[in-house]
Amino acid sequence: MLDIEIDGKAVQTPEGSTVMDAATLAGVYIPHFCYHKKLSIAASCRMCLVQVEKAPKPLPACATPVTNGMKVWTRSEAAAKAQKAVMEFLLINHPLDCPVCDQGGECQLQDIAVGYGGTKSRFNEPKRVWVNKDFGPLISSDASRCINCTRCVRFTAEIGGVQELGQTYRGDHAEIMTFLGRPVDSELSGNIIDLCPVGALTSKPFRFGARSWELTRRRSVSPHDALGAKLIVQTRQDVVKRVLPGPDEALNECWLSDRDRFSYEGLASEQRLTLPMRREGDNWHTVSWQIALELVASTLRDVAKEQGGQAVGALASPHATAEELYLLQKLMRGLGSQNVDFRLRRRDFRDDAVRAGVPWLGMNVTDIHDISSILVIGSFLRKDAPLLCQKVRHSALRHGLQVNTVGPNAEDWRMPMATRALVAPSGMVDMLAGIAVALAKKTGKTLTATLAARACAENDLPDAARAIARSLAAGEKGAVWLGNLAEQHPRAAELHLWAQEIARLAGAALGFVGEAANSVGGYLVNAVPGEGGLDANAMIAAPRHAYVLLGAEPDLDFADGAATVAALSRARLTVALSAFDSPGLRQAADVMLPLAPFTETSGTFVNCLGMAQSFQAVVPPRGETRPGWKILRVLGNLLELPGFEFEDSEAVRAEALPADIAARLDNGMGDIPAGEAAAPDAPHGGRLQRVADVPIYFADPLVRRAASLQKTADAAAPTARMARATLAALGAADGDKVRVTGSGAAVELTAQADEGVAAGCVCIAAAHPATVAIGPLFGELSVERV
Amino acid sequence: MSAHAMILDGIDGDRTWRLKDYVARGGYAVLKKILAEKTPPEAIIAELKASGMRGRGGAGFPTGLKWSFMPRAFPGDKYLACNSDEGEPGTFKDRDILRYNPHAVIEGMIIGAYVMGCARGYNYIHGEIFEIYQRFEAALEEARAANLLGQRILGSGFSFELFAHHGYGAYVCGEETALLESIEGKKGQPRFKPPFPAAFGLYGKPTTINNTETFASVPFLLRMGGEAFLALGKPNNGGAKIFSVSGHVTRPGNYEITLGTPFFELLQMAGGMRAGRRLKAVIPGGSSAPVLPADTMMACTMDYDSIAKAGSMLGSGAVIVMDETTCMVRALERLSYFYHEESCGQCTPCREGTGWLYRVVHRIEHGLGRVEDLDLLRSVAGNISGRTICALGDAAAGPVLSFLKHFEDEFVYHIENKKCLVPPSLQDTGSQIPVYVSQSC
Questions:
Q1: How many other C-beta atoms can be found within 10 angstroms of the C-beta atom of residue A735?
Q2: d(CA A738, CA A620)
Q3: Most buried of the four, A155, A357, A457, A685, by CB within 10 Å?
Q4: For B239, left (φ over 0), alpha (ψ -120 to 50), or beta?
Q5: How far apart are CA B118 and CA B113, in angstroms?
Q6: Contacts of B90 (CB under 8 A, 6+ apart)
Q7: How many CB atoms lie within 10 A of CB B76?
Q8: What's the whole-number mean pLDDT along residues A504-532?
Q9: Can you tell me whether residue B153 is helix, strand or coil?
Q10: Percentage of chain A surpassing pLDDT 90?
Q11: β partners of residue A673
Q12: How far is CA A64 from CA A16, A132, B70, B193, in A?
């Protein structure tokens, strides 16, 4: 430890600290612009100049290492003079447009100018003006306001993984711009808005929406990916105007993904369902809550009475709150049905019977810094869970974490990758088995007997399997993660089993990335089929007489949208609790009940770390919308089911979630026999295995309706992505139209060459209206050039 | 003390730059001896320290001391870099060294690499002298063919690869850490120090950077011995140095003289003042050195200490001579424009301040000055000085402060009369383009 005195306050700081670190410890504020605790030190704005004993010149606090016995003055005459001079320089070319600047009121330049600057300008020359840049649909540029702190540049390189911005030209011609006129195209891009200390980068969707002091700040939790980032939702007059990160070092730090940040625009979508609606023939009418609920209750009661409870099924979105999921399963069980599930895009549920507990990430995010090797199986991690990916990237860039993947996809994760085993979905189980065999040899451990019989011979191992085994065996701590694609895979249970074996042999932690905000919570509240109950797949395969749909769109949120719509529309009653009206729902449902989105209800998400995060409504429900827990509670009352006398969502939560969540988390599973789920055949004659990503901005009903996100490159219409060799075998080239046939339907898509897709596979995005017709996420498709 | 050709000795223009010519002049003998005798690196450093040799790039840092900073026991790569990014207005010595005697630089670098244990070196050559870069590449090819570079040099156990790297003309790349950034393929911007290059240099590895003339001097220094080298100059200012004399002299050019030679002798070598005019001012060490009035300069000797005592810097040895036809406001305007255009834009005081200084001086020169401008200039220059990442900020502020210090009356005249104290017709006669004469004494 080093002793240092700052403004007369003695503090001790660890070796390697800077004066800025020490000042933070001492509670002394030093003004700064370019310095940011999460970014590398630029020492270029010079705002943090301080006086240091024995130093002839003022020194930048952010870059000056503490030495033992150092004395620093941050507000002495010399320091104040230097700071005032820097402030003057920063302002000479800065436009005096605060009254029309969105940053006004939350501007570091404004604040520090008042605190540390002069009162009047001595600059009587013409000001420099820059032309605004195109930063894409999310970020608004007011280039002349830029003070060249380069925080945004450093963010894209150091946190985003690829430098997307740069400072071009020299001297006072220097300006921040994108490369070759390209927009910023990162799933984390919105963070540069927060980082910008001035009004040069502001939120485009929020532009001129409100002044910062008019906004009310409310805490909330992101309803999208499994990390469940903390949010600050800002509202004005009961309208959500903006979303900012809620800092949490153990979770999202000070970052948000663009999905977390900009999806709020979907709340104001024209498709918001604000009144209960009922189908009569092909027409839909609004009805009162009372009529709607009585209709639903009586039909459910009749079906259960006439056909038995198992004739009713409930399908819930994994983005629903724990309270909603709990009450839904309680309702089903009250009706005598064990048919309830929230894992809508899954196909293979064989591990349900042998699961040791609730699947979760298997570690805390802070543990990611400590692991030296990771194997990610079947995941579009960068787009599925952007901030989780960022933590892996951070560890790969800063701590040398070796990142390995197995799957049919090898898209750019913007980080150094060790080994990527690019295999078709049908080859994934064998690849994992190969890694396990190689690991057993490498570590001198023996394979579990039941698995050894199914493993391939040692000398048949692919190179990638050996390389991944080497990587996992070399490090002290490792991790094996199963991604969304692995969970959605037709042989998901076997992937789970082999991943468990690999983790055991490597001494690594096993984890599930998790598809959505409540992927862990759904298990905890038992929104899964009970004894004799049907899982999400089986409920579609064996259609029910009545369905309750919670927060999901039948065409877009299921493993096979076309089959789901078909099954639901044939039922006697499908009641959909939904925040949005949609063509898919109108086709499949009979009654639509307006469900409050996360900003209009209280509830809880249990994230992939096992953290139960409760939140309150930030605005009142829109129109006749009602929180899901209230709707389900009333349905329970109308059905005269016991145990539905809840006064508030806290009471639901108290009953729904166990006191000790950690005790329930366990990724282990028992043995299952091999190969029960049909494996797709090897490709033959124009038939390719489908690989389906769920694009980041199509993944759930809310983000699908976020207007600005829908203008980004990530929301582009689906294409048929194939490796060049696969394309060539079809006689097609990049940019050609191809006809893709599956499930008896055909769609026309543009072929796109993509070496990140395994040979013999075609990657076609799911969760998009353009690709619903061709059926399930996995399986064979026939592809031909048009 | 006087003219002493060393690096430029025996040079016959473009005809004598090849390896055979350099060897005929005694070149590579020192290197061969070191490699054959396996001279301990410490002995060479001791010789350098004894010589009083100071860096020829501008800062005048003792070379032996710099070489001794390199961590000898460091495991892994270490780099050597030669700074030939000669961009300071008034300086043109490194260009001539590389053109006429490139092997002296190569030999000096090989010896440096031997002393500091570097396996790789780069010579970063200013982008605006591309033909010099090509010349140096040709010299490197000769050296490689003669096994003076590459693996197991001259059959010894020592290996060293040397590469030429040309910049694109940015002045700031002459700042050593900006130079390293540029070699790494990044935008040439100075790094914040510490860490210094000796600890964290090229690609994050320990790196030593010396000026072209410094490296070129090393073989000569070692040939004559440190004591003898020191004796050439004066204490703490050892050896001979090349001065680039430009401006209103009869024979501008490079003059290699012993340190400590009186300025008036150098002026005489350059043929004295043009057309018999009176000396008005001299910038003795390149455009970033403070200007000195005639009287002060005439009393100086050409060495680090004497010029520093007079309130300026010997710098890179670029002596810019101005006669009575010079308008000091116009001269400063041109200098300030240079620094405005060459600021890298990284840190605030330099990025914003250099433009401000230029705009104000420009206004004064064009008859739009205000009385308060002079105080403003001093204040702005003072606010840049000592507050920037690299020395470019000080370099931009230095001329402003020194011109105002010694020639304030001309600025006041400009402001009050909206015209120049020196009549424009007279200025024009003084600014006729001089004939450049390359000198090897």
A1: 10
A2: 48
A3: A155
A4: left
A5: 5
A6: B244, B246, B283, B286, B287, B318, B319, B320
A7: 8
A8: 97
A9: helix
A10: 95
A11: none
A12: 10, 35, 22, 9
Which of B347, B364, B370, B390 best tests the A interface by mutation, with the highest count of A CBs <10 A? Answer: B347
Parallel, antiparallel or unpaired: strands A49-52 and A59-60: antiparallel
Residues in CB range of A516: below 8 A, 6 or more apart: A224, A225, A226, A317, A318, A319, A699, A700
3-state secondary structure of A363: coil
List alpha helices for B159-252, DSSP H.
176-183, 212-224, 226-232
**Residues B262, B302: contact at Cβ < 8 Å?**
yes
Confidence at B440, pLDDT banded by 50, 70, 90:
very low
Q: What type of residue is A479? A: A
CB of A128 within 8 Å of any CB in chain B?
yes
The Cα–Cα gap between A465 and A757 comes to: 18
Q: Quick check: A122 and B194 CB within 8 A?
A: no
Q: In this complex, do A172 and B340 lie within 8 Å of one another by their Cβ atoms?
A: yes
| Angstrom distance (rounded) from CA B140 to CA B163 | 8
Q: How far is CA B73 from the centre of its chain?
A: 31
Say which residues have a Cβ less than 8 Å from residue A595's Cβ, sequence separation at least 6. Answer: A273, A550, A551, A577, A578, A579, A625, A626, A627, A628, A631
A 288-307 near B (Cβ less than 8 A):
none
Q: Are B421 and B410 in contact (CB under 8 A)?
A: yes
A575-A578-A346-A686 Cα dihedral, nearest 10 degrees: 100
- As a whole number of angstroms, the distance between CA A445 and CA A67 comes to 50
Confidence of residue B2 (pLDDT cuts 50, 70, 90): low
Candidates A582, A574, A523; CA nearest to A556 is A582
The CA distance from B288 to the nearest CA of chain A, in Å, is: 17
Amino acid at B403: F
- Contact between residue B256 and residue B441 where contact means Cβ atoms under 8 Å apart: yes
Residue type at position A317: S
Cα gap A362→A663, rounded to integer Å: 12
How far, in Å, CA of A668 to CA of A515, rounded? 18
Please state, rounded to an integer, the average pLDDT across all residues of chain A: 95
pLDDT tens column, A406-464: 999 999 999 999 999 999 999 999 999 999 999 999 999 999 988 988 887 777 899 99
DSSP B56-100: SSSS--BHHHHHHHS-TT--S--EEEEEE---STT--HHHHHHHH
List the structure tokens of B61.
């840092």
| Calpha distance A195→A746 (Å, rounded) | 46
Q: Note the ipTM here.
A: 0.93
d(CA B287, CA B95) in angstroms, rounded, equals: 17
| Total Cβ atoms within 10 A of residue A774 | 25
| A713 CA: distance to closest CA in chain B (Å) | 28
For residue B22, the surrounding DSSP H or E stretch is helix B19-24
Of A230, A147, A135, nearest in space to A177 by CA: A135
Q: Which of residues 102-161 of B touch A (CB under 8 A)?
A: none
Query: What phi, psi does A491 have (nearest 5°)?
Result: -120, 40
Count of helices and strands (H, E) across chain B: 18, 11
Tokens representing B320 are 């810019």
Give helix B348-365 / helix B392-417 axis angle, nearest 10°: 20
Based on C-alpha coordinates, what's the Rg of chain A? 28
